[in-house]
User: Which sequence fits this backbone?
């Protein structure tokens, strides 16, 4: 199992890096969907001991939400608002990649600073999780379109998930489902907001929403 | 004790009643004024009993707020401040009943009465409170109530600005008091006054805190900036109360703190005395010099409040010097003079503000240069204003002279029998008092002479008329009390004995002996005063006997051959004060605007001068603008771009993680 | 009883969504609020039993915040009944951009309002950290549509920022939860359940490094929601653009709930002997928030934004108080009560002013005391209360905090605290008094609507009473809460 | 007995000093000049006359001279004649004295303003200016003497200014005498501060204030200014003439001689120098207070 886990983690990290580097929003959505898929698989692979029903259900739920529902929702918004690619991002893609690598280094350092009390399923787990989180934050910060920011938020969530799924055993079902539900509603509401923004402003450029200041 | 509390309750209740009945002018004014007068009667009785030697009474009830307790006490010091508070506010209320009548058409006066009674009640509480929280609450309520009274005519821009300055000043002052009381209470563990324990290392800091915090209310230079703004803005009966007794609560606080900080056991360091003398000199001289340069009668009076607060501070300074050098005579005389001046200033400054209000009420303007000849039109107001003017100039035989004499005596005593180190400050006190006295006389000859004498300088002034009885009676009573205290000064000083024992911490019989000595001196003064009055009467008799049956003609003023003297040719207030304002022009920074007469046959020429307060112009104004500009530079932080907002979050997180875990 | 508290607003929300006619819905809203408050009142008499295996319980800390929320919601419900009645149907002109806009459908508004209440109640009663997180996120989602009640550009922008920033923050808090779980994983043994009491009980076994990390994430995550500088950026936009009644709830109730999230973990830290770690951070954030608030209040051009920044300031005061610990914690808890009541009152009054003057610009509003006597009076009184002048409640709490700071010998902190308070006083005074006093062209427009003046007036009376007398029961609860925080 | 003497002498002899001054000036100018007793004659003439009042004026105008005379009369009961004690002596009487003169000035000025005439207003304005500057000098001088003699009452203070005081603090006393001389000239409206002889020039101070007074009131004013001259003079001479024999008539005679000498000196000063520009008068007065401050410094040392 451990090999699987590691490879999935590596793929996750690569996906995040790819996201930093890609300009086509549709591509970004696909990457995030792919990450959701990987996340679902991860929930299965990290389970040691007898495969029970619970992780299976959770995995399906995750894949259904992060792998299918969200991308579909965002794709619809994308279709309504005729934007194809992220024109002039605040940080150019090469620099983004550079910062991405820096973030990777930082997350490695942080994971050194935080020795796990118990041996983790995979040594890569903490750094990848942190890196994905940082990548998500960076996307939110550096991309102009509101849609891309939602994607960033999703990546951030994914990173946190990697962490949770990998390290936290025995979280009660109720809490996990509540968390999932919240994330779902959050993205849903954001989608609606995006829809309204698109209708009201005829654009979804977050950096042009700057009337309210001081 | 209970009577005083009853008075407070009565004031509060009547205030609310006035608010509820504000539909009818009569009803609200009626219950407010009635309650104020009744409360005055109720409150003065126990205060006088304490002053006459009755034991101080106190009341300690639990109060469910943090560190709070309803702990009140009427001791000699409190009683001494209670008397003027009750008397002056009672009289001012009567005066206000008629004075506010002119606004009855334009607005409802319920709030005015509510806040007036609230102000009086809070002043009483401030003076009797013995718990820091209670004191601070009363102190701030006092500030707020007076603020709303100051902004009574808030439709005027100037009034709003005055209110702004006043509120800022008093609030910043209170900040110092918060620290002061907390530090006082930290050692003893309780904020009750009788639990205060002062660590010797802290006394200096505490003294400075008290000087600043209470000085802001009392109007010490350079914390006085709110005074010349707020007093003219407020209705006159309010200005009388504010200037007469409210700013004295600052003095009360300072003296009360001295009872904790300076005892014969632990005498205060000499620099406290030096500091008080320095503050007194600055306030006194600056105050009177700025008063000289004013055109607005009430503004002039406000600056005189600064001056008189300075005189009081001089007295306290001499007293503190006496304590620090262990010279009881010096201490007794200094404190006696300062405290007696508190009472006197309450009387004559209240009187003068009421008079100024009557003038503004009758002539429709407070511009001194537009007035004149009012004595013929308002004889009673004129007479009382003259008495007040003589009293505030510290001239015998009225009460102002008595308190200044005591301070002089203390200073001279220190001068004759102290080491040179002590002699220097008291020497400055002597010189300063002399200069202040001379300038004050100059200023009030100007005020009275230009406003009430000569010919009217405007139609308003020509149509002025005597106010009704409700406004005249308080002025007459105050004038009478000025004369009485002047002539019966030994009694007044005798009543000070318990207060002095309370303040200086000297043993009562030591104090009594010194008070007796002072009383001896004052009996001579009284004799002189009586002799003076008698002589005046006799000479007046002689004069009329000489003139009886002789030819007494009335003509024009001798006009040096001009064909048509007009009232515009009279000497104006500005020109009267000009030589002195020229002398102090460095200080005053007077602005001149106008057209000088030019050519062989000059036509229209004009001159307008204004003397803004140098502190607010040169000190506070720049400071505030700089702070404002500096802060404005930081506003880009909230620029409206959501990316950067998230960036803030990320950076905060990273910084914390790296800082705390790195 | 706790379940009643939760289900009452939930069911009412469902009902309100399907209830078509307006009048019954508004009555339902008010009734629900009343019932909720009544049940909350009962909890003061009888301690409700923990449910769901100790996940839901009402300790004194929760009870304090629950009571604040419930009280505010009553005022808000009554106010909004009148408010929704006055709001014009259909498209109308936006007074700043002149564009046409309509309101969100009223059922949605009422439903979200009730869901908001349910979520906040859940925050106050849940002792399971995961559940707490779910509840806090739920408050965000329930309140977002409320902010977008007026469907015009600025409110949409505000909503977007609110969603984006708070979601990011809350996500970090979730990470914090996971960190906490790691800290509680108990060295291979059976992990300690993430319930406040359990963690406090097993505090010595916690993994300190991860606990600290978890605290940092909680601080940043819930701090974003709470509006601590520099994470406060969403707050002025949301508060200024939301309907005033919503702003009142956001500022008075929601921020406290977010604070509760931090406090819960602080309880655990205290038990684990790491109180100092959190406290110094809290002091730092408190002072920083006050400073930032001072910067933006002075010369603020929009009076609702001014109130929002003042909320930032007071959240700073709360954190400062808790950070100082000891008597200051008592002051902070008391201040939470005072601030909520006062700020809600101010926002409601601001709504009345906005309704008449149709402008949020401080330079265009003059003479409120003449045009709206009652609201004007409340406006000025509320200003004096919020800036900590006696005889109003906030004075006592701020005084307590100052005294604690000085008694602990934290002179720098005390001086900074006083300086910021003074700056904010001057800044707010300049704005509020200019608005209240003076003369204006518009003449007094008849008596003010009762439903618009009664709630703020009631709150104002409460604040005044709290400044003159603190009931024994409240004193007890606050003391217990303070003791729980060390 | 001697108390009565110190009180009675000024009442009788004060007008004589004015006569002396005028006579001296006349002689210096080579004229015969008016008789020594001219002032008495003027007084009686005025007392017998009627009065003319301006319509503008009020009772303040009529009260002015009366109050002024009363004040200066009371003041004259406080001033010792060198070693000979005054009628009344108590600690602090020096302050009462100074403030009684202040009271007199206050009402003179008000009376002047009551006429509404710009001349009198101008005079009043100058009067208050200069006196406000002269007052500190006077009190500082008193302070110096008090410090020197360790007493707070004029009579013992001057009794203590014997020849040995000169031996100890000669320079200080000399400075003091200089300061008091300036005060003397200023307060009594003499050259170089003021010119008592003419009434009409706008440069006048004291004399222009009484333009509108007539009859008995003018007599009051004349008499009280004479008394004032005597009193301030005796304060000055009391320092300069250190005769403290303890025998009343010797001391008295010495003082009288001193006073008349002072009158002569004043006359000589007036006829030998011109009135200073008004702008320089304040400098002179401030200089005077500097002198007395210096004297104090010497004594304190």
Assistant:
């Amino acid at each position: 199992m451990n090999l699987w886990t590691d490879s999935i983690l590596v793929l996750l990290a690569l996906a995040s890096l790819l996201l930093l580097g890609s300009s086509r929003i549709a591509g970004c959505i696909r990457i995030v969907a792919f990450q959701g898929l990987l996340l679902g698989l991860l929930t299965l692979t990290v389970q040691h001991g007898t495969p029970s029903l619970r992780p299976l259900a959770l995995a399906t739920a995750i894949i259904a939400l992060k792998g299918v529902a969200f991308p579909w929702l965002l794709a619809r918004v994308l279709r309504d608002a005729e934007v194809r690619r992220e024109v002039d991002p605040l940080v150019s893609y090469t620099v983004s990649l550079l910062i991405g690598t820096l973030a990777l280094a930082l997350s490695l350092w942080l994971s050194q600073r935080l020795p796990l009390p118990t041996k983790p399923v995979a040594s890569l787990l903490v750094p990848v999780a942190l890196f994905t989180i940082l990548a998500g934050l960076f996307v939110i910060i550096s991309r102009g379109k509101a849609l891309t920011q939602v994607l960033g938020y999703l990546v951030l969530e994914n990173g946190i998930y990697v962490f949770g799924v990998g390290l936290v055993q025995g979280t009660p079902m109720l809490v996990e489902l509540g968390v999932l539900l919240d994330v779902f509603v959050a993205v849903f509401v954001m989608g609606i907001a995006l829809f309204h923004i698109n209708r009201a402003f005829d654009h979804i450029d977050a950096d042009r929403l700057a009337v309210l200041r001081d | 004790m209970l009577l005083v509390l009853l008075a407070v309750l009565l004031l509060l209740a009547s205030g609310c009643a006035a608010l509820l009945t504000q539909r009818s002018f009569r009803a609200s004014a009626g219950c407010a004024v009635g309650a104020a007068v009744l409360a005055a009667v109720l409150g003065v009785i126990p205060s006088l009993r304490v002053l006459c030697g009755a034991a101080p009474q106190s009341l300690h009830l639990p109060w469910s707020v943090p560190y709070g307790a309803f702990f009140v006490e009427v001791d000699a010091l409190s009683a001494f401040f209670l008397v003027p508070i009750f008397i002056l506010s009672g009289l001012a209320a009567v005066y206000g009943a008629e004075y506010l009548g002119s606004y009855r058409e334009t607005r409802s006066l319920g709030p005015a009465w509510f806040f007036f009674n609230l102000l009086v009640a809070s002043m009483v509480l401030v003076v009797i409170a013995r718990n820091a929280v209670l004191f601070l609450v009363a102190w701030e309520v006092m500030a707020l109530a007076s603020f709303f009274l100051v902004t009574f005519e808030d439709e005027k821009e100037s009034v709003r600005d005055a209110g702004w300055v006043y509120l800022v000043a008093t609030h910043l002052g209170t900040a110092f008091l918060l620290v002061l009381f907390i530090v006082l209470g930290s050692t003893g563990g309780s904020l009750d006054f009788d639990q205060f324990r002062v660590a010797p290392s802290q006394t200096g800091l505490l003294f400075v805190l008290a000087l600043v915090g209470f000085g802001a209310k009392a109007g010490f230079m350079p914390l006085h900036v709110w005074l010349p703004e707020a007093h003219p803005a407020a209705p006159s009966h309010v200005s009388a109360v504010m200037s007469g007794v409210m700013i004295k609560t600052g003095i009360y606080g300072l003296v009360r703190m001295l009872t904790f900080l300076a005892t014969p056991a632990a005498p205060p360091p000499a620099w406290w005395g030096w500091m008080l003398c320095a503050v007194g000199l600055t306030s006194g001289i600056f105050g009177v010099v700025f008063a000289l340069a004013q055109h607005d009668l009430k503004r002039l009076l406000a600056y005189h409040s600064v001056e008189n607060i300075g005189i009081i501070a001089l007295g306290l300074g001499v007293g503190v010097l006496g304590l620090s050098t262990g010279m009881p005579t010096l201490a007794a005389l200094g404190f006696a003079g300062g405290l007696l001046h508190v009472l006197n200033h309450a009387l004559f400054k209240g009187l003068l503000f009421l008079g100024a209000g009557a003038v503004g009420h009758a002539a429709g303007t407070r511009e001194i240069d537009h007035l004149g000849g009012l004595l013929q039109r308002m004889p009673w107001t004129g007479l009382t204003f003259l008495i007040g003017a003589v009293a505030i100039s510290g001239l015998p035989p009225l009460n102002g002279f008595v308190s200044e004499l005591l301070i002089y005596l203390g200073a001279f005593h220190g001068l004759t029998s102290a080491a040179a180190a002590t002699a220097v400050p008291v020497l400055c006190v002597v010189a300063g008092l002399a200069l202040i006295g001379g300038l004050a006389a100059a200023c009030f000859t100007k005020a009275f002479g230009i406003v009430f004498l000569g010919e009217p300088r405007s139609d308003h002034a020509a149509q002025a008329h005597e106010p009704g009885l409700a406004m005249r009676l308080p002025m007459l009573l105050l004038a009478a009390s000025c004369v009485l205290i002047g002539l019966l000064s030994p009694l007044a000083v005798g009543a000070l004995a318990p207060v002095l024992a309370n303040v200086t911490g000297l043993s009562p019989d030591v104090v009594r002996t010194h008070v007796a000595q002072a009383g001896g001196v004052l009996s001579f003064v009284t004799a002189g005063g009586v002799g003076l009055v008698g002589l005046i009467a006799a000479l007046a008799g002689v004069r009329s006997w000489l003139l009886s049956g002789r030819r007494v003609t009335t003509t024009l003023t001798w006009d040096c051959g001009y064909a048509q003297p007009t009232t515009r040719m009279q000497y104006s207030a500005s020109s009267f004060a000009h030589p002195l304002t020229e002398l102090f022009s460095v200080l005053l920074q007077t602005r001149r605007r106008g057209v000088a007469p030019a050519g062989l046959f000059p036509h229209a020429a004009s001159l307008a001068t204004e003397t803004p307060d140098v502190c607010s112009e040169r000190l506070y104004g720049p400071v505030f603008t700089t702070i404002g500009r500096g802060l404005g530079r930081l506003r880009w932080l909230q620029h409206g771009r959501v990316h950067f907002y998230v960036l803030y979050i990320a950076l905060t997180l990273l910084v914390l993680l790296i800082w705390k875990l790195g | 009883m706790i379940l009643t508290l939760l289900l009452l607003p939930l069911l009412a929300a469902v009902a309100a969504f399907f209830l078509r006619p307006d009048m019954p819905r508004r009555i339902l809203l008010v009734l629900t609020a009343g019932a909720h408050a009544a049940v909350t009142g009962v909890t003061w008499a009888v301690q409700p039993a923990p449910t769901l295996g100790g996940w839901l319980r009402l300790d004194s800390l929760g009870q304090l915040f629950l009571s604040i929320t419930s009280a505010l919601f009553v005022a808000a419900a009554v106010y909004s009944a009148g408010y929704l009645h006055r709001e014009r149907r259909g498209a109308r002109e936006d007074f700043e951009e002149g564009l046409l806009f309509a309101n969100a459908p009223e059922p949605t508004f009422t439903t979200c309002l009730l869901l908001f209440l349910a979520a906040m109640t859940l925050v106050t009663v849940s002792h399971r950290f995961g559940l707490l997180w779910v509840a806090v996120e739920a408050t965000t989602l329930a309140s977002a549509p409320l902010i977008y009640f007026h469907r015009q550009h600025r409110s949409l922008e505000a909503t977007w920022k609110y969603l984006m920033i708070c979601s990011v923050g809350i996500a970090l808090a979730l990470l914090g939860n996971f960190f906490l779980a790691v800290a509680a994983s108990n060295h291979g043994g059976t992990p300690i359940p993430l319930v406040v009491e359990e963690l406090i009980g097993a505090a010595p076994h916690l993994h300190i490094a991860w606990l600290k990390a978890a605290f940092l994430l909680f601080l940043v995550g819930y701090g974003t929601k709470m509006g601590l500088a520099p994470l406060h950026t969403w707050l002025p936009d949301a508060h200024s653009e939301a309907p005033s009644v919503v702003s009142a709830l956001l500022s008075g109730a929601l921020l406290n709930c977010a604070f509760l999230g931090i406090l819960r973990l602080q309880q655990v830290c205290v038990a684990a002997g790491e109180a100092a770690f959190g406290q110094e951070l809290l002091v730092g954030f408190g002072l920083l928030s006050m400073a930032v608030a001072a910067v933006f209040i002075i010369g603020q051009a929009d009076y609702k934004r001014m109130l929002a920044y003042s909320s930032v300031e007071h959240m700073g005061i709360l954190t400062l108080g808790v950070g100082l610990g000891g008597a200051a914690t008592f002051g902070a808890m008391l201040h939470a009560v005072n601030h909520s009541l006062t700020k809600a009152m101010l926002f409601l009054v601001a709504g009345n002013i906005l309704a008449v003057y149709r402008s949020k610009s401080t330079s265009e509003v003059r003479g409120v005391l003449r045009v709206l006597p009652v609201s004007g009076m409340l406006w000025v009184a509320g200003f004096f209360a919020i800036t900590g002048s006696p005889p109003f409640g906030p004075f006592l709490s701020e005084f307590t905090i100052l005294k604690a700071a000085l008694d602990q010998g934290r002179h720098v902190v005390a001086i900074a605290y006083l300086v910021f308070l003074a700056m904010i006083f001057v800044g707010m005074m300049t704005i509020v008094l200019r608005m209240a006093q003076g003369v204006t062209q518009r003449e007094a427009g008849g008596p003010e609507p009762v439903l618009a003046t009664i709630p703020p007036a009631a709150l104002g009376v409460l604040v005044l009473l709290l400044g003159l007398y603190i009931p024994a029961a409240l004193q007890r609860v606050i003391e217990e809460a303070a003791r729980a925080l060390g | 007995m001697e108390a009565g003497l110190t009180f009675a002498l000024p009442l009788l002899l004060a007008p004589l000093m004015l006569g002396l001054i005028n006579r001296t000036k006349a002689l210096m100018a080579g004229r015969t000049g008016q008789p020594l007793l001219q002032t008495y004659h003027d007084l009686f003439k005025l007392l017998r006359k009627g009065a003319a009042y301006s319509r503008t004026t009020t009772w303040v105008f009529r009260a002015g001279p009366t109050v002024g005379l009363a004040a200066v009369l009371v003041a004259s009961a406080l001033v010792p004649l060198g070693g000979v004690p005054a009628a009344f002596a108590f600690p602090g009487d020096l302050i009462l004295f100074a403030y009684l003169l202040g009271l007199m000035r206050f009402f003179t000025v008000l009376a002047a303003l009551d006429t509404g005439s710009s001349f009198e207003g101008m005079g009043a304005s100058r009067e208050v200016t200069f006196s406000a500057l002269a007052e500190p000098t006077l009190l500082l001088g008193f302070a110096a003497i008090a410090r020197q003699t360790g007493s707070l009452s004029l009579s013992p203070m001057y009794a203590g200014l014997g020849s040995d005081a000169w031996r100890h603090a000669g320079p200080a006393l000399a400075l003091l005498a200089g300061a008091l001389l300036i005060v003397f000239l200023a307060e009594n409206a003499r050259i170089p501060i003021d010119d008592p002889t003419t009434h009409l020039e706008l440069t006048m101070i004291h004399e222009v204030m009484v333009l509108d007074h007539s009859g008995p009131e003018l007599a009051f004013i004349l008499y009280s200014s004479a008394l004032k001259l005597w009193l301030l003079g005796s304060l000055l001479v009391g320092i300069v003439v250190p005769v403290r024999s303890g025998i009343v008539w010797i001391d008295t005679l010495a003082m009288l001689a001193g006073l008349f000498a002072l009158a002569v000196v004043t006359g000589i000063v007036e006829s030998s120098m011109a009135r200073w520009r008004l702008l320089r008068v304040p400098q002179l007065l401030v200089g005077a207070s500097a002198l007395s401050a210096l004297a104090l410094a010497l004594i304190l040392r």
Residues 614-661 of chain B form one domain.
